[in-house]
Amino acid sequence: SDITLQSSDRVLFKVHRRNLEMYSQVSPTQSSEIVYLSESSAVLDLMFQYMYLQPQPNLRKVDFDVIKDLAEAVEKYCVYSAMGALNVQMREHIPSQPVEVLLYAIRHNYPELINESAEATLEFPPYPMLQRVPPEVFSAWVRLSLTSFPSLSKSNKWTTFFFPPRRIDILSTNVPCPPFQRVHPIWAKTKSRFVFYSFPTQHAQ
Predict the structure, then answer these.
(1) Known InterPro entries for this protein (predicted)?
(2) 8 Å CB contact between 170 and 162
(3) Smallest Cα–Cα separation from 1: which of 24, 34, 41, 25?
(4) N or C: which end of the chain has fewer CB within 10 A?
């Protein structure tokens, strides 16, 4: 090894500069001093394994909090060898963590993952969503929810019936549609464009 990195919890990692340069956009200086990173040792330990010729770690055994931070780290440092694996892991957590997965998918522009995680949140009451997502995301979520399920039940939850979708486009400006938009996401924001589906409604009994 020829460089030392320190995690946020003060664990030192001795790694090879060439591996960092080849497999990521971590760009330490030529100085022999320790390089400080904001990620935890649990996250860095897993991330560095994707920068060496060795079997990839078994992420199924990793807690979601670490998976979530690792997913952000590999996007931050452009560790392309790990992005696909983390995308799969985040998708597997949609049933238990749909809001976290939705925010991750929006931040990093994964339309299909936005589709799945957004649909999983439609039955959530509005107030908890308001507390957990940024205002612009909440605004789009409300429009999607009201378009999909306009009737609120007495228990203050959205109706939970799902039906074949009808596409709706909302364009605030004439922004060219990038190639990935052809998958028609249920709810995606790219620049000033929102694209989502609405569902035929059925009143709650």
Answers:
(1) SKP1/BTB/POZ_sf (IPR011333)
(2) no
(3) 34
(4) C
Residue for token digits 């991750």?
A: 104
The verdict on residue 141 lying in a domain is yes
Is the Cα torsion angle 199, 201, 204, 205 positive or negative in sign? negative
- Which residues pair with residue 190 across a beta bridge? 193
Among 70-79, 120-129, 195-204, which stretch is predicted with the lowest mean pLDDT? 195-204
Write the pLDDT tens digit of every residue in 24-47: 987 766 666 888 999 999 999 999
Strand ranges (E), 17-176 = 35-36, 166-171
CATH number at residue 93: 3.30.710
Q: Considering only CA atoms, give the Rg of the chain.
A: 20
CB-CB contact of 25 with 78 (8 Å): yes
* Domain containing residue 162: 41-198
Q: Are 21 and 78 in contact (CB under 8 A)?
A: no
Within-domain flag for 83? yes
Find out whether 100 and 68 touch, Cβ atoms under 8 Å: yes
Token representation of residue 101: 């997965």
The HSE-up count of residue 52 (CA atoms within 13 Å, CB side) is 13
What strands lie across the sheet with 12-15, from one edge to the other?
12-15, 3-6, 35-36
Distance in angstroms (rounded) separating the CA atoms of residues 160 and 170: 24
Q: Taking the complete model, does pTM exceed 0.90, yes or no?
A: no
**Lookup result for tokens 């957590």:** 93
